[in-house]
Amino acid sequence: MKALTASGDYDVLSSLRMLKNTHAATGFMHESFMKDEPSQFTRSWFAWANTLFGELVLDTYRTRPELLKEV
What we know:
Elements: H1 2-5, H2 9-21, E1 32-34, E2 37-42, H3 47-63, H4 65-68
Antiparallel strand pairs: 1-2
């Protein structure tokens, strides 16, 4: 949600990088995870978070496509 409401590129990019680095090799977003060990997470399938992530990627592609090359 932070990235979807961000006004600056830095917040979008840092959020995308964090999400990319914490999916625990599942390709899915999780309800929560241990900050020092992303492989320890809750809910292996959390539709709301995955849908919101999809919206973020599409919104970023439409409004700031250059950021996706930096992730």
